[in-house]
Specification:
Layout (H helix, E strand, L loop, with lengths): L32 H5 L16 H14 L20 H8 L14 H18 L3 E3 L5 H18 L8 E5 L5 H8 L3 E5 L9 H7 L4 E7 L11 H10 L3 E6 L11 H4 L3 E4 L1 H4 L14 E3 L11 E5 L2 E5 L16 H39 L14 E3 L7 H10 L6 E2 L9 E3 L7 H20 L1 H6 L11 H6 L11
Parallel strand pairs: 2-3, 2-4, 4-5, 5-6
Antiparallel strand pairs: 1-7, 6-7, 8-9, 10-12, 11-12
């Protein structure tokens, strides 16, 4: 990438003028930095910070904010990520707890502990689980916690050396096989059937005393509900296999169907997807893990318990896998999720799930009418996977959407669909927004079929054009130097 494409938007370093200041720090007087911080912690030369006035700083960061695409500025249909609007009242709720300190005596934080206890109770009721930990800091972290709990369970039963395989569908989220591998398991892939659901017979053939767990998402990443889930979980349990539920897609079924009732033994949730906390952008997440009673002894410590009228942090779990997160989880995220559940109630959660399904099916119909193909066109849930009209690439259409002011959907995932476009509109988008998105995508496809060169040249209005994305991922440039220009 040549940064000089966008000279109208100089970097803060390029605005620098020697001697220019917006603020001057107070003098440190006779303080000896080496005595205060230690010689090894004192710089030999001052940092090369930009020298700018306050107005330049304000304009720089304001322009940066206007260059961002997010749910506050545009439609953000990332499949499987649930980038939905997050009510501002939840931010106000979280702000009420900013004076808390994680080291303070639990007796002085009874309100916070009560909130955590009640949130766990709500999540247990929503998922059909018997016990819940709020510690994990994100979805993938929750996955690892759940698999470690399953591993501890098998080891405690004397089967740890034998059950070394985790089964994962070929349409699974990439974090599923990665998690199982990190936990020391061998990963075996199970194919999907022609209907897009797990091939139940193929899965049954893989079952046996060597299998520790099956990791499933329901609805799956094609947006399809696994209709044979009860048959699958029964066969797994007969073989002594534990069922792990990836909660990334719970947004489609919350309040309607519970993973625990489907036969799952472990479930992780993405509070930062399903229960309103902003997702993405490097901010904190939360991946609570719920388990059935037979796995509860292995959960991380501490757990919030209610004893009489008081709330305590209970660390008396001798078989626990130990802590998986400093302190008790990302508390601000927990507050937002608690407020979201209280705000909507069961009726509101069910309505949100229903609207997410309605929006997805409506958008799917709009795109099909514009020539987009849906390879697994069953009764999809909150998301669906489409393919561009024959001859077009998903990547090119994604780039064209940037010029139209939309964030592209997830592309090239799941891997079992060629030129996949994985689209999730969520329940918070209006009908008119979906129609504008479909119109923009349809127009890009129409122009691309008529003039492939135009489509391959998109985007035209962004600060930089086509990047070497592989190089940017493998060799990112995270530090500015004048020589780089």
């Amino acid at each position: 990438m040549d940064r000089r494409e966008d000279r109208a938007f100089p970097l803060i370093f390029e605005r620098s003028q020697k001697g220019r200041r917006g603020v001057r720090p107070p003098s440190v007087g006779d303080v000896d930095p080496e005595a205060l911080f230690g010689r090894e912690n004192v710089r030999e030369s001052p940092p090369r910070l930009p020298e700018v006035d306050e107005l330049s700083v304000v304009r720089h960061y304001t322009l940066l904010s206007r260059r961002q695409i997010g749910v506050d500025t545009s439609f953000y249909p990332l499949g499987s990520c649930t980038m939905k609007y997050n009510p501002r009242v939840l931010e106000a709720a979280a702000a009420r707890f900013t004076a808390l300190h994680p080291y303070q005596d639990p007796e002085t934080a009874q309100g916070a502990l009560e909130l955590m206890y009640e949130l766990a109770e709500y999540l247990k009721a929503i998922t059909g689980m018997d016990e819940m930990t709020l510690q994990p800091a994100a979805g993938a972290h929750g996955e690892l916690t759940g698999i470690l709990v399953i591993r501890a369970y098998h080891e405690d039963r004397g089967e740890g050396d034998r059950r070394r395989v985790v089964l994962v569908p070929d349409s699974a989220h990439g974090s599923n096989p990665a998690t199982a591998s990190m936990a020391g398991f061998e990963v075996r892939e199970v194919p999907s059937g022609p209907d897009g659901e797990v091939d139940t017979e193929a899965l049954k053939r893989e079952l046996g005393p060597h299998v520790a767990a099956i990791m499933l998402t329901n609805p799956n990443t094609l947006g399809l509900f696994e209709k044979r889930i009860l048959e699958l979980t029964e066969a797994a349990h007969q073989a002594g296999v534990q069922l792990y539920y990836d909660g990334a897609n719970l947004n489609a079924i919350m309040g309607w169907v519970r993973p625990g009732d489907m036969g799952f033994d472990v479930v992780h949730l993405n509070l930062h997807k399903t229960f309103a906390t902003p997702h993405g952008g490097g901010g904190p997440g939360s991946g609570p893990v719920g388990v059935k009673a037979h796995l509860a002894p292995y959960l991380p410590v501490p757990l919030v318990r209610k004893r009489g009228s008081a709330y305590v942090l209970d660390e008396d779990l001798p078989k626990s896998i130990g802590r998986v997160r400093s302190f008790y989880g990302n508390f601000g995220v927990l507050v937002r999720a608690y407020a979201y559940i209280r705000l909507l109630g069961l009726f509101g959660l069910k309505r949100a799930a229903a609207l997410s399904v309605l929006n997805a099916r409506y958008l799917k119909a709009l795109l099909k009418a514009k020539g987009f193909r849906v390879p697994y066109d069953g009764p999809t849930m909150h998301e669906f996977v489409a393919q561009p009209p024959e001859g077009l690439r998903a990547l090119d259409l994604a780039k064209a959407l940037l010029d139209a002011g939309f964030h592209p959907p997830t592309i090239y995932f799941p891997l079992i669909v060629k030129e996949a476009m994985m689209i999730e509109p969520t329940e918070t988008e209006a009908k008119e927004t979906l129609e504008r998105f479909a119109e923009a995508l349809g127009e890009a496809a129409r122009k691309g079929l008529a003039n492939p060169g135009w489509l391959e040249g998109t985007p035209y209005t962004t600060p930089v054009r086509r990047l070497d994305e592989v190089r940017a991922n493998r060799r990112p440039v995270l530090r500015w130097t004048p020589e780089a220009e």
